[in-house]
Write a structure and sequence with these properties.
Layout lengths: L1 H8 L20 E5 L4 E6 L11 H17 L3 E6 L4 E3 L4 H6 L3 H20 L4 E5 L2 E3 L1 H7 L3 E5 L3 E3 L13 H8 L2 H10 L3 E2 H7 L4 E3 L4 H9 L18 H18 L6 H13 L3 H16 L2 H18 L9 E5 L3 H12 L3 E5 L3 H18 L3 H10 E3 L11 E4 L5 H14 L5 E4 L6 H4 L9 E6 L8 E6 L5 H13 L3 E6 L6 H17 L4 H11 L5 H8 L1 H14 L9 H8 L13 E3 L2 E3 L8 H22 L5 H12 L8 H8 L1 H15 L14
Parallel strand pairs: 2-3, 3-5, 4-6, 5-7, 6-8, 7-10, 11-12, 11-14, 12-13, 14-15, 15-16, 17-18
Antiparallel strand pairs: 1-2, 8-9, 16-17, 19-20
Helix pairs in contact: 2-4, 4-12, 6-7, 6-12, 10-11, 11-12, 13-26, 14-15, 15-16, 20-22, 20-23, 20-25, 21-25, 25-28
Bound molecules: nicotinamide-adenine-dinucleotide.
Length: 696
């Protein structure tokens, strides 16, 4: 694409002439050329990165280019990107992370807005040609142009909310005045990108075309011949404050369903901004920059930026790309079916085996449902289903680069299956288990090639949970582990290396939290109250609801394994809970657990929260204590991997930056004292782990 873009610049159709030379000139990150008809073509091409993002240097250079263009007065200006990946991904997150000093933040936002305003005011017709990703600041840059031409397949969006922000370079003011403000607000509040066709319908872009027709589309843009879809007349009503207030109330209610204001202030700030200033673009623009500056200084934004980097670090664990053509999955139940479906969706050929045909049929039906939900077109669904092959006879085993076992959590059953698998597998293929709790040293006993055996611990549902624990054990080879991590990266999940120990990292940390929640219920606390307290802390779902989601049978099983396998005093499972499991009340999957479930939702009554602080500590501190134990024992290498794994494996309050970040922010001394107090009051399960003393 980059080649094509530069080639397009020297295309005769663009009147640059075959000899036209597109040079970087004085600028590191931009290239500027003028066509024979006097139109300036400006290409964004960050010198130091593979993708375009906007940072101070890029904007300083743009400012100086604009200064020149104000003098040279070209017949028009076309802005596009020379990168394959797209137009621009938005602000450089590395830069955001360095902005801490309030006066400096204000000055930098003001300067950046000054550059964009200068572009918008340049008295020539400006056309943005957009391909690939056009996000955040990239879209705000395009919005300063008079016309936007998108190459088919382009994605446009405002993902700022995911970093605890809203647009701050005029994106909010410009978009709400260009298109239907409700649509613009929805894009900004959800962070969801629109594809080029939708953007055209909304009026966010003015033409959608193929690369080969760009020259013609640009000529139309420069001649003012493009036709913009205007918002309906109803949207004019939002120029009036009462209409905006009604819409804003609805937006707040919708937002509140997803995020609490105390945890995620950005969407609420955006709604306030639009309600108060949406009648005037200029006023809104000014207020937008000020509000953006305030949000940048919130802990939420800083911690979400941290979560962004934690995610990037986990991605890097995937290492060098490797070839995986074929995966064989053994066990087509809840997990095996999901893993197989996800791998096929990610383009791999998958054979799916089971002792029984029924679960395979059910897994294929679930795969179709999943593809219909996440996919856009029938062709993608059909292709993925073609790649997902039922295989009761295990023909795929001999061809697989990786075999994933997901049969019930029984040591002898798994070991028996491995004996059969190993005999049929390629010598260098990886055998991976999805066990949630059985130590790999035990599972690997009797294997002929224990070096090729690893754990790949997926979370349920695989399509939504991004983390996969890549589990090592004493005999696993470095190559098999690297292959496991590369495989996880290949299927667009985040690999977190952990060492085999009961529960690995995520379940080990989660289980004391779930068990404590059940203990609270056992003591007479309402399930709803326990859930509410956890959600107030910032967990995406309360522990009781989570236990029902996971399945009470699985929770009891994992708690038993942890209790047996660790020198830790996890309270014994109450008899009433074991009876529930024995009676088949397993949670969501059986329709009844600690809650009654209907249409995938638990029916809940109102919570009655009294001692929120102590209840929060009783739930969260055992989780932190287990995390510290994992660090001390080397189950996980460092606090960054730990925080990333807990955020992306359990949804641990992302705006708190991860459990260890939370511990540091609150003060490890305070946590230790609180744990000691809880231990005196409720039992030794709260005794602080010795690892707290090693944390600074
Ligand atoms: P499941 O009971 O839903 O599915 C297991 C499947 O294995 C069934 O379809 C069964 O017919 C099949 N099976 C049994 N014996 C077999 C054999 N000899 N050969 C081939 N197939 C056989 O179980 P699940 O919940 O999918 O769990 C599978 C594994 O994944 C377990 O080790 C579990 O601990 C782990 N795990 C589960 C979850 C979860 O949330 N359910 C999450 C992470 C990991």
């Amino acid at each position: 694409m980059a080649g094509k873009v530069v080639a397009a610049l020297s295309d005769r159709a663009l009147e640059l002439g075959p000899a036209a030379h597109v040079s970087k000139g004085r600028w590191e990150h931009w290239r500027l050329a003028t066509s024979q008809t006097g139109v300036a073509w400006l290409l964004l091409d960050r010198a130091d990165t593979r993708t375009n993002t906007l940072n101070d240097k890029v904007l300083v250079e743009l400012n100086s280019i604009l200064e020149d263009l104000e003098v040279s007065k070209p017949k028009g200006l076309v802005i596009r990107s020379a990168k394959t990946s797209g137009f621009a991904y938005g602000a450089d997150v590395n830069d955001l992370a360095t902005m801490t000093d309030p006066p400096e933040i204000e000055a930098r936002i003001s300067e950046a807005n000054g550059v964009f305003d200068r572009l918008a005011a340049l008295p020539v017709t400006k056309v943005a040609v957009i391909h690939g990703q056009c996000l955040g600041g990239g879209l705000e840059l395009a919005l300063c142009c008079d016309w936007r031409i998108a190459i088919a397949g382009t994605k446009l969006g405002f993902p700022e909310v995911l970093l605890g922000l809203h647009p701050g370079l005029g994106g909010a003011a410009r978009s709400t005045h260009l298109i239907d403000p409700i649509q613009a607000m929805t894009m900004m509040l959800t962070g969801k990108a629109a594809d080029a066709r939708k953007a055209k319908r909304l009026g966010l872009v003015d033409a959608v075309t193929e690369e080969r027709h760009v020259a013609a589309a640009v000529a139309d843009g420069l001649a003012g011949k493009l036709r913009r879809n205007r918002p309906g007349t109803l949207s004019h009503a939002f120029a009036l404050r009462p209409a905006r207030s009604v819409a804003a109330r609805k937006m707040r209610a919708e937002t509140a369903k997803k995020a609490r204001q105390a945890h995620y202030p950005a969407p609420y700030a955006l709604i306030d901004l639009w309600e108060a200033h949406g009648g005037s673009r200029k006023a809104m623009h000014k207020a937008e920059a000020a509000s953006f500056g305030k949000l940048l200084q919130t802990d939420t934004s800083r911690n979400l930026v941290r979560a962004y980097f934690l995610r990037e670090a986990l991605k890097k664990n995937a290492g060098e790309q490797r070839d995986f053509a074929h995966v064989h999955v053994v066990g087509a139940g809840t997990m095996g079916g999901e893993i197989a479906a996800w791998c096929a969706w990610q383009g791999l050929r998958v054979t799916l085996g089971d002792v029984d045909v029924k679960p395979i049929g059910a897994a294929l039906a679930r795969a179709r449902e999943l593809y219909d939900k996440i996919g856009k077109d029938d062709a993608a669904t059909r292709d993925a289903l073609d790649r997902l092959i039922p295989d009761t006879k295990g023909y795929g085993i001999a061809h697989a680069d990786i075999v994933i076992e997901a049969v019930p959590e029984k040591l002898d059953l798994k070991q028996k299956i491995y004996a059969g698998l190993e005999a049929g597998m390629k010598k260098d293929a990886v055998l991976a288990t999805n066990t949630s709790s059985i130590p790999l040293d035990r599972l690997s006993k009797g294997l002929k090639r224990p070096a090729r055996f690893i754990g790949l611990h997926f979370f349920n549902p695989v399509s939504r949970m991004q983390l996969v624990e890549v589990v090592s054990h004493d005999k696993a080879s470095a190559d098999a582990l690297a292959a496991g991590s590369a495989f996880v990266g290949r299927i667009s999940r985040l690999p977190a290396p952990v060492r085999s120990a009961p529960g690995f990292l995520v379940n080990r940390a989660l289980m004391p939290y779930l068990v404590e929640a059940l203990t609270l219920v056992d003591e007479g606390e309402k399930a709803e109250t326990v859930d509410e307290v956890a959600e107030r802390f910032g967990m995406p779902m309360g522990p009781i609801e989570l236990a029902d989601q996971v399945g009470l049978d699985i929770c009891v099983e994992v708690a038993d394994v942890l209790r047996d396998g660790l020198d830790q005093s996890i309270p014994s499972t109450p008899d009433w809970l074991r009876k529930k499991v024995a009676d088949g009340e397993l949670g969501r999957k059986s329709g009844q657990g600690l809650y009654a479930w209907k249409d995938g939702k638990p029916s809940k009554s109102s919570p009655s929260v009294h001692h929120a602080d102590e209840t929060t500590d009783r739930l969260i501190l055992p989780l932190l204590n287990a995390c510290v134990a994992c660090l001390r024992e080397g189950v996980v290498a460092d606090t960054e991997t730990l925080d990333g794994a807990m955020i992306f494996g359990t949804g641990f309050a992302p705006f708190r930056g991860g459990p260890m970040h939370y511990a540091r922010t609150r003060g490890t001394g305070d946590i230790k004292v609180t744990l000691k107090r809880l231990a005196e009051r409720y039992g030794e399960r709260f005794t602080p782990d010795p690892g707290w003393d090693d944390l600074t």
